[in-house]
Every structure is written in structure tokens, then in C-alpha cells.
Specification:
Helix content is 40%, strand content 20%. By secondary structure, it is α/β, with parallel strands linked by helices. It has two domains: 128 residues, D-Maltodextrin-Binding Protein, domain 2 (3-Layer(aba) Sandwich), CATH 3.40.190; 96 residues, Periplasmic binding protein-like II (D-Maltodextrin-Binding Protein, domain 2), CATH 3.40.190.10. Strands 9, 10, 11, 12, 13 and 14 form a six-stranded mixed β-sheet that branches. About 5% of the residues have low confidence.
């Protein structure tokens, strides 16, 4: 064999060895290559259960929120803070001079003062207070509105402004002999309660045998006219309510039927306004002002009619 033939044979051997090495690499790396099919990542191991649990493709188009109103800037430019309220003691009441008083009224007035604007109260019912906010008739709800899931789906709540208890207040004219809660859970007993869904649900659950009637006005006004045996009411202090009219009503039990937190409510899509209100509440709490107003309205009979 000539030297030229030897060189050709050696060259072919090198090519063959390189080719065999490449084949070995491809075989060893086949799991890695199997993870990229069509340029897209895929699993190197097929789960036999995958077909049974594959999630459905999301065919819902993204929900786009319309541009939101800058409530804080609008209020300051308007010069008026419009506050949605519902009359309920001791949060929102009218005194004998027909002026608004109450814990929520104090909050609203101090908030407006800090903003450098006037306050305007937009009075409505429990059924209408959230729709009016959403329709732009008010800028914020400050009336002891209780937090619950259905409401939180349509409005944003601030941190709690107060924690209230739901109490049963008895009428001395119609139910003076009933000295415990069970005595009101009987047929022929009429109990009035706010149309607020939370309070109504608590009343119906606790007194299923009685006739529980929701009212749009203050339940205590109905009780004052002796048109019901008792009223279910959310309040900071049931003792203050009873002491305001000790010859008209009494407290069958000092234990509340339930407790829940109340907060301010604003329209969704305006995080700046919500953040400002939470910061403002933090400052009122840290200064001691918020607790002082809670103590005042837990004992005061001002505004009760």
C-alpha cells in the first residue's frame, strides 16, 4: 500500500470515528432533544393521566376596565365631598334641630375638613346606597356599612372604622315579660330589622319562628311607635340606646347576636383614593381621635329620638 493510500485510509478512519461519536451523543441526549418539539418545550416523560385532567383552553377574552375617575382630585376641584349615608343609630342620626349627628357623621366631617372641602350628605336606603355610589351620586359611603362578600365584589372597602354588635332591643309596651332571647322566637312575634342583608340574615337565623320584617327606615322608630315586639339593630352600644328611652325599650340580653366590622366604601378602579382613606384612618387611629369618638358614641344618647 502506498503512502497516499495509507493517508486516505487514516482520514476515513477519523471521519468514521467522528461520525460514531456524534451518533453516541445524539443517543445519549435524546431525552433533552425530546423536550423541544417544533421549537416548543415539551415533557420528556408522558403522563398517562394527563389526558384525563387537561384543563380546558380559556376562551374568555380579558376583561378591560374602563378609565376610572380620580375621585380625590375631583372632590378637591369640586370643593365638596359627597357622602352616602343611611340613618341608623348611633352612626347616622338627626337631632332635634334636624342636624346630622353620629359616629359616621363625625368621620365624614373631619375627613372633609382635612381635604379642605365642604361635606354634603346624600341620604338613601340600605338597598340604594351602593347603587348610588356606583352611579356617581356620592363619592364615598360612610355610614357604618358592614363588610361582606357580595358588597366587596362591587365596591372596595377601607380598613375597619368600627366593630359593631347586632343586638335585640325589646319593647316594654308589647314584650315587657320576655326576659331572654328565646322568648322572642315564637309565632306571633314581630321583629323589625334593617333591610341590610347581613342584619336581616342574622335576625332570621336567630328567630326563625317569629315574623322578621325588614324596614327601610330606622328600626328604632318603628319600635318607638310600639308597632313591633322588638328590633334587631347593629350598634356600637346597645346600652346607650336603651338608656335614651328607658321607659320604651329594654335589652333582653347584653350578648350580641353577631359582630362584624364596618368600613368606608368607594368605587373600584381608584386605588389612589382607597390608599388615601386608609392612610387617613391610620393617622386618626394613631392620634387617638378615632377611639375617642367610638367611646363617645358608645355611651352618648345625643341624637336618639
Amino acid at each position: 500500500m502506498s503512502n497516499h493510500q495509507v493517508n486516505i485510509f487514516a482520514g476515513c478512519s477519523k471521519v468514521l470515528r467522528s461520525t460514531m461519536a456524534l451518533v453516541c451523543i445524539l443517543i445519549c441526549c435524546s431525552p433533552v432533544l425530546a423536550q423541544t418539539v417544533g421549537g416548543q418545550p415539551s415533557s420528556a416523560w408522558a403522563d398517562p393521566q394527563l389526558g384525563k385532567h387537561s384543563p380546558a383552553v380559556d376562551s374568555v377574552s380579558p376583561v378591560m376596565r374602563p378609565p376610572a375617575v380620580d375621585t380625590l382630585a375631583t372632590v378637591r376641584q369640586r370643593g365638596v365631598l359627597r357622602v352616602g349615608v343611611v340613618q341608623v343609630a348611633p352612626m347616622v342620626m338627626m337631632d332635634r334641630s334636624q342636624n346630622y349627628v353620629g359616629f359616621s357623621i363625625d368621620l365624614a366631617r373631619r375627613l372633609a375638613s382635612d381635604l379642605g372641602v365642604r361635606v354634603e350628605f346624600v341620604e338613601t336606603s340600605w338597598a340604594g346606597i351602593i347603587p348610588q355610589l356606583l352611579d356617581g351620586y356620592s363619592d364615598v359611603i360612610i355610614t357604618g356599612l358592614w363588610k361582606n362578600v357580595p358588597r366587596a365584589l362591587v365596591v372596595n372597602f377601607t380598613q375597619p372604622t368600627a366593630t359593631e354588635g347586632i343586638h335585640l332591643i325589646g319593647s316594654l309596651a308589647l314584650a315587657s315579660d320576655r326576659r331572654n332571647l328565646d322568648a322572642f322566637n315564637r309565632p306571633g312575634t314581630r321583629i323589625v330589622v334593617s333591610s341590610d342583608p347581613v342584619q336581616l340574615a342574622v335576625a332570621k337565623a336567630r328567630f326563625p319562628r317569629a315574623t322578621v320584617t325588614p324596614v327601610e327606615t330606622d328600626p328604632m322608630l318603628v319600635l318607638k311607635k310600639a308597632q313591633a315586639h322588638a328590633a334587631v339593630l347593629a350598634t356600637l352600644s346597645a346600652d346607650a340606646i336603651v338608656s335614651s328611652e328607658p321607659r320604651r325599650w329594654y335589652l333582653p340580653s347584653s350578648d350580641p347576636l353577631a359582630r362584624t366590622s364596618a368600613g368606608m366604601a368607594v368605587r373600584k378602579g381608584d386605588p389612589d383614593f382607597l390608599s388615601f382613606l386608609n392612610t387617613w384612618l391610620d393617622m386618626q387611629r394613631e392620634s387617638g381621635w378615632l377611639e375617642a369618638r367610638q367611646r363617645h358614641w358608645a355611651t352618648s344618647t345625643e341624637g336618639f329620638r
